[in-house]
Prior knowledge:
The protein is α+β, with helices and mostly antiparallel strands. 34% of the residues lie in helices and 12% in strands. The strands form five sheets. A five-stranded antiparallel sheet has the order 12-5-7-6-13, sandwiched between helices. Strands 2-1-14 form a three-stranded antiparallel sheet, with no helix packed on it. Strands 3-4 form a two-stranded antiparallel ribbon. β3 and β4 form a beta hairpin. The longest helix has 25 residues, at 514-538. The two termini are 34 Å apart.
Amino acid sequence: MTDPTDRALSRAERQAMPVALDVAVEIAKHNGVCIRPVVLRRLDTHTGTTEDVNVPCGTTMEAKCPPCAKRNRYLRMAQCREGWHLEAEPSITPDEPTEEQRWLVEFRADMQAQRDAAEQAGDDTTELDAVLAGLDEEINAAGMRGNLLGRTAAKRNRSTRRRQDAPDLPKRVRQNTTLGRTFTSSDGATYRPSLFITLTLPSYGRIRAGQGVPVDPDTYDYPRAARDALHFSKLVDRFVQNLRRVAGYDVQYFSSVEPQKRLAPHLHMAVRGTMPRAEIKAIAAATYHQVWWPSVDEMRFEGEHLPVWTERPERAEPYPDGQDGDYLDPATGELLPTWHEALNRLDADEDAEPLHVVRFGPQVDVQGVLSGTPDADQCIRYLSKYLTKSLGDTLDADNPAQRAHAARMVEALRYEPCSPACPNWLRYGVQPKNAKADMAPGRCRGKAHKPEHLGYAGRRVLVSRKWSNKTLSEHKRDRRTWVMEALGLADETPDPHRYVWKPVPAGDDNIPSLALRLLRMVAERQRWRATLLALEASATGQDLSAVREAA
């Protein structure tokens, strides 16, 4: 074995040797250990002792750490499997309020009455408002959901009349259930089938078969593809609303958004219950989402000619969006309309058209799935296939045509407004919502403009509230409890108020190096794995696949 400290070695020979830290990272990946652990300092308020704890980085499905992303993918698969073919309604009965909760709400009612009386008398209500804000925080901390104030801002309402170019949908009487229909075969067996639906966006131009790149990039409709990707999540929401209207029951779903080869997002959805395929396709064809934003047909500012920020303009009215300044036209000194004012003008225009209308394409795939079949397992794996990667990570690195296609898509998104607060609105003479100084078109930091997201800024996994009647954290806790019981270890739930967690400052000398922390975590994981393998060898007919996944 070559000694790297041997001075007789050339520089090239030493550079060819693997780096020890890189080897430790590869070993950690092989053992399913987080390679980017975050060190937090935990203070035990009961004993007064402190301890440094390595916390895995994976808290989202798009974790950059491959082991954490893989672990989260297994967790999503378990969540999908548990809620897809339920045979009994999930129990969602709220707990009875405690005496403390009742007292807090009653006390807030008294303080609200005092505040209203002071306002009617013309007195200063600043102190009472602060008391009410503190009480609202205490109410939420006491374990109550919701907000007693309700909606604090007026909601903009538009006509709900359906577009003339969209077919009407039937509306059935809503039943208070989340379960689908059951079917009885000739032999008396009862089946409760469910659905697996795939929805895509329309075509923007001819695509080379198997490559996902345009035949003619010059005629490919990149602006429309960019806008469809930006508003795809809203279109999915509209589809779910229409699906529940037509189905007549509270349809529950588990869905994931994935990229096609042409880089357009598309949806895979597991639906509890079944409906005729023709109805699903009719719902998809009738679903649309209108984007009622100011027009971007006229580009008013570009290059060096950009709006100028001023903190003390002469305004007749206060700022409706809470901003502390205004953008001016550098040539005329005219104030640009704020986001609130631009929407008011749009509302007042009876001939106004939506900025964009997004729809699904004609390709709709609907499959019936039965519980416990290989098809169900295959669909679950397909739903979670790309959850460890961002949309941009699915690009073929060896395909220059696809990389060029992605670059053109990113360029089409560069000046496209992604949200009301997007700086790109300045390009079209409108101040973004809650405008701030130093905004510039083409420099939006929003998720949608980043190359790895390709315009889609929504959540990758969409799960209805009554899917399994559990949050992702509860699913994780259930799996941990199962593993601890299988190992014969006590799984005690710690008091959440016992520990105080603080981040460790950078450069703390008491923190071991990353390589040493990885080695310790790998050694601990190997001890767990040895115990699990011994348990598996002694088990008779026990399915320990979940244990191996959790380990």
